[in-house]
């Protein structure tokens, strides 16, 4: 059982016996909570699937978009965080605070590496490399002493194969393309660190407190990068700002925030594997919204990714039982 799962189990059980919460047996409560987490995870994946089509249709620099989606999210969260979570923010432990800040820096690193890679190598290759996140998540968990079941390894590999089936991967010998490939791979590693740090912080901190500190840190870091690189932060028309606002709501508040919410109960392996569904999800959204016909491989790739995710979820459920 992973650390987040142990915490979730401890949080729903009062002892070794058949503890009850709200008049329901512990087993039923845990099953209901996991089912809710899976529903929220599906909503989160749907939210982040809107990210690529929105960014593609937004006439603004990519890093500026990344900054504003985090800054706007902080603006939305501020009233809630200061009204309902003020005491928690004041008393948050040094370790939780430090790890939340670190998660924000790692998330900024993910954006800072991946978005430039899209202009250096092919979009297909960049997408395939950045979605190696669950591989790095599983390897990091193994290095920390966890022993992921064989089904987790098999499910992770199958899900990644599904993404490669959809996007393809065409490694080039061109120096610039190779640099872009390296950036995309680094972004995938950074995403794994972000998920794992979030799982750790969420053992003791609420979703709102954690995301507030994390997004705030990400926004400050990306603002610094934009200022240093000379990336424009404004001067766009109303439609551009509207799309950035939509991106904030869909990909940041519903996407990343719900991922931060469910990672405590579902664990980092299931959560990071599910994020792979963003790739076929974005293709289907682009087909409906932008009129871009999805590739022939979109539907079988979706089935392969879902099969891999099912293996990971089943393995985590067996381990938790």
UniProtKB/TrEMBL annotation:
Q: Which residues form the EamA domain?
A: 38-167, 179-313
Q: Name one Pfam family in it.
A: EamA
Q: Where is the segment annotated Disordered?
A: 1-30
Bias-annotated ranges (Low complexity): 18-28
Locate the transmembrane regions by residue number: 38-56, 62-84, 96-115, 121-140, 152-171, 177-197, 209-234, 296-315
Q: Which domain of life is it from?
A: Bacteria
User: Which keywords appear in this protein's UniProt record, sorted alphabetically?
Assistant: Membrane, Transmembrane, Transmembrane helix
- The positions making up the signal sequence are none
Q: Give the protein's recorded name.
A: DMT family transporter
Origin organism is Actinacidiphila acididurans
């Amino acid at each position: 059982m992973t650390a987040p799962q142990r915490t979730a189990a401890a949080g729903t059980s009062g002892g070794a016996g058949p503890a009850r919460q709200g008049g329901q047996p512990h087993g039923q409560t845990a099953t209901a909570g996991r089912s809710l987490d899976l529903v929220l995870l599906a909503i989160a994946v749907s939210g982040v699937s809107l990210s690529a089509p929105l960014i593609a249709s937004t006439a603004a620099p990519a890093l500026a978009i990344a900054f504003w989606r985090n800054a706007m999210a902080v603006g939305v969260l501020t009233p809630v965080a200061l009204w309902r979570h003020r005491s928690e923010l004041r008393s948050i432990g040094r370790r939780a605070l430090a790890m939340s800040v670190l998660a924000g820096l790692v998330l900024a690193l993910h954006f800072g590496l991946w978005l430039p890679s899209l202009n250096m190598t092919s979009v297909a290759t960049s997408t395939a490399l950045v979605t190696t996140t669950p591989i790095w998540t599983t390897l990091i968990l193994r290095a920390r002493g966890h022993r992921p079941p064989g089904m987790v390894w098999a499910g992770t590999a199958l899900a990644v194969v599904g993404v490669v089936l959809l996007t393809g991967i065409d490694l080039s010998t061109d120096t610039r393309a190779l640099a872009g490939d390296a950036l995309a791979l680094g972004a995938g590693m950074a995403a794994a660190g972000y998920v794992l740090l979030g799982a750790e912080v969420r053992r003791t901190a609420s979703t709102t407190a954690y995301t507030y500190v994390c997004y705030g840190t990400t926004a400050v870091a990306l603002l610094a990068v934009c200022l240093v690189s000379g990336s424009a932060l404004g001067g766009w028309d109303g439609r551009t700002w509207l799309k950035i606002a939509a991106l904030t709501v869909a990909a940041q508040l519903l996407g990343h925030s719900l991922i931060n919410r469910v990672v405590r109960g579902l664990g980092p392996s299931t959560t990071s594997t599910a994020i792979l569904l963003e790739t076929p999800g974005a293709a289907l959204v682009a087909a409906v919204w932008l009129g871009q016909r999805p590739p022939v491989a979109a539907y079988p790739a979706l089935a392969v990714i879902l099969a891999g995710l099912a293996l990971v979820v089943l393995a985590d459920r067996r381990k938790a039982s």
